[in-house]
Each structure stands twice: as C-alpha cells, then as structure tokens.
C-alpha cells in the first residue's frame, strides 16, 4: 500500500530563528512537510497562491499583514487551506479572534515542541485544536454569555480599516500605504479619517497605541 502524501505546510513567522525551529519539528515527522516559508502576512498570501499548501501556520504578530488578517483573507480566497495560529500570547482574546478569522486552532510558541505536531494532525482531521487554557476560556466565556444573555460583540472596524490602521501604526506614509494596497492616497486618507472617528481618536499616536493594545503590532 502506498504511503499517504504528507501534509504540505506553509510556515509564516517574521523571526527566522522561530521558523527554523518550527521547521525542524515539522520536517522530522513523516506525514508533515514544509513547502514554503514567509516572513510577513502579505508574503504568506503570495506563497499560498504559489504553493497551494494543505495547511498554513501563521504567527499573529507579523509586518504588513498580521497572521489574523492573512487568515481572514486565506479563509475567503482558499477555503480548502486549513489554518493554525502560532503565537507567544497566551491570551483568550486572541484565541477567539483567531477562531473567528477561520483558524482551526491556536498553538503557543512556548510549547510548540509539545503541541504543534498534534495540532497539525488534528487540524487536518477537521478537528479544532484547543490548548488547555483555551478550553477553560471557552467554557467560561460560554457560561458568562449564557448567564447574561449577551451576544458576542461585533467588530468595530472593517478588514480594510484594520489593514490601514496596522500600516499607519508601523509608520508608513499615506503614499506608501496607497502603493502597498494599490489604492489612491485619497482613499487611504478617507479610511484613516473613518478610523479616527469610529475609535474616538485624534492622531497617529493614539492609533498606534490602539494597534499595540489590540495586538496588530508589537510594542
């Protein structure tokens, strides 16, 4: 009987050392193989188009596009590609956002050597991968919402506004953002004005602090 084809993996993290360590873990397994790497979210999308991976492992905090932004776009354009989020943040807020973005699971970098291989296999079986802290968070969140009768909060800003917020916070000029996103500078300015109004903020500095607080960029 022929061996099953290994799961083809795209690995995206902006730290080369992390990518090397994760690749060693994955490539040592006969049923997993890394076919492409990326060091930012936009490059991850380009590599996904070029290599058609079965599974994308995306770091949350990356330049250009975060792993969550890339996950949302991948879910929309390549729904057959499964997604795992890799992160240093043991934070249930990110966990819920990751699931909403289309990810099947969330693996902490601190225990990647223990959890990552099983997370990949669970994801390819169509099962969510939940680390122990996340299970507790899910149950607590469900019970709180059930008790209070609250719906889940809606996102305040659109995907495009979030994309522009991240680039503004990274220090890009209006023209640079327009070039990166292939839109006009006037459109960038309009989105930025909308962001300031929606978030009740007055300048780039406040937008940058907000972007750090919600995990779009690292401080």
Provide key terms for this protein.
Rossmann fold; globular; five-stranded parallel β-sheet; 10 helices; single chain; 219 residues; Arc Repressor Mutant, subunit A
Query: In angstroms, what is the radius of gyration?
Result: 18 Å
**Counted beta strands:** 5
Structural class: alpha/beta
For the record, the CATH architecture of the largest domain stands as 3-Layer(aba) Sandwich
Tell me the count of domains.
Answer: 2
Which overall shape is indicated by the principal axes computed on the Cα atoms? globular
Mean pLDDT: 85
At CATH level 3, the topology of the largest domain is Rossmann fold
Q: What is the terminal-to-terminal distance?
A: 52 Å
Quote the beta fraction: 5-15%
Order of helices and strands: EHEHEHEHEHHHHHH
Unreliable spans: none
Looking at CATH, the homologous superfamily of the largest domain is Response regulator
Describe the main β-sheet briefly: 5 strands, parallel
The helix content is 40-55%
Q: How do the strands of the widest beta sheet line up side by side?
A: 2-1-3-4-5
Helix tally?
Answer: 10
For the record, what CATH class of the largest domain applies? Alpha Beta
């Amino acid at each position: 009987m022929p061996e099953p084809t290994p799961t083809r993996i795209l690995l995206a993290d902006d730290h080369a050392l992390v990518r090397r360590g994760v690749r060693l873990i994955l490539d040592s397994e006969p049923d997993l193989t890394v076919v492409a790497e990326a060091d930012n979210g936009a490059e991850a999308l380009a590599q996904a188009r070029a290599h058609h991976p079965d599974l994308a492992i995306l770091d949350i905090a990356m330049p250009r596009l975060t792993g969550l932004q890339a996950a949302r776009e991948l879910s929309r354009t390549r729904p057959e590609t499964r997604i795992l989020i890799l992160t240093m943040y043991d934070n249930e807020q990110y966990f819920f956002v990751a699931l909403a973005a289309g990810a099947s699971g969330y693996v902490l970098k601190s225990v990647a050597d223990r959890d990552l291989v099983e997370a990949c296999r669970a994801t390819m079986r169509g099962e969510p991968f939940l680390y122990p802290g996340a299970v507790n968070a899910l149950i607590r969140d469900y019970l709180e919402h059930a008790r209070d009768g609250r719906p889940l909060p809606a996102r305040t800003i659109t995907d495009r506004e979030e994309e522009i917020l991240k680039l503004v916070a990274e220090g890009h000029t209006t023209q640079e953002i327009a070039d990166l996103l292939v839109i006009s500078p006037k459109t960038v300015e309009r989105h930025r004005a909308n962001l300031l109004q929606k978030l009740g903020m007055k300048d780039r500095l406040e937008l940058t602090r907000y972007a750090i607080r919600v995990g779009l960029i690292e401080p």
